[in-house]
C-alpha cells in the first residue's frame, strides 16, 4: 500500500483538519504517516510556514495548507 506523509504541528488547526480529511480519504488507498515538525530543525526550515504539507513517500509535495483532492488523486494514480 502506498504511504503518504503529512508534516505539521499539533497545535495547527489547518494541520488537524487536513489530517482528519486524509484519514477519511485513506480507506484502503494509502497509509498516512503524521510527522510533527515542531522540534525537528531541518523539517522546520524546510516546511516552516507551509504546514500542513502532504508528500508522497519520496518527498514529492502533493499539496500544502489545504487538501487538494484532485492533486491527491492524480499523485495516487501516478504511484499506482
Notable features of this structure?
globular, about 30% strand, about 80 residues, single chain, Glutaredoxin, about 40% helix, alpha+beta, 4-stranded mixed β-sheet
Descriptive report:
The chain is of the alpha+beta class and 80 residues long. 40% of the residues lie in helices and 28% in strands. The protein has three helices and four strands, in the order βαβαββα. The chain has helices spanning 13-26, 41-47, 69-79; strands at 2-8, 30-36, 53-56, 61-64. β1 (2-8), α1 and β2 (30-36) form a beta-alpha-beta unit. The longest helix has 14 residues, at 13-26. The radius of gyration is 12 Å and the shape is globular. The N and C termini lie close together (9 Å). The relative contact order is 0.24. The model has no long low-confidence stretch (mean pLDDT 95).
Task: Describe the protein's topology.
Elements: E1 2-8, H1 13-26, E2 30-36, H2 41-47, E3 53-56, E4 61-64, H3 69-79
Parallel strand pairs: 1-2
Antiparallel strand pairs: 1-3, 3-4
Structure annotation, total helices = 3
Name the poorly predicted regions: none
Structural class: alpha+beta
Kindly estimate the percentage of residues that lie in beta strands according to DSSP: 25-35%
Strand order of the largest sheet: 2-1-3-4
Oligomer: single chain
Instruction: Count structural domains.
Output: 1
CATH superfamily: Glutaredoxin
Biggest beta-sheet profile: 4 strands, mixed
> Roughly how much helix do the residues carry, as a percent range?
40-55%
Overall pLDDT: 95
N-to-C terminal Cα separation, in Å? 9 Å
SSE string: EHEHEEH
What is the name of the CATH architecture? 3-Layer(aba) Sandwich
CATH class value: Alpha Beta
Radius of gyration: 12 Å
CATH overall fold name: Glutaredoxin
What coarse outline follows from CA principal-axis ratios? globular
Number of strands: 4
InterPro entries: Glutaredoxin-like, Thioredoxin-like_sf
Organism: Chitinibacter mangrovi
Pfam family, one: Glrx-like
Protein name: Glutaredoxin family protein
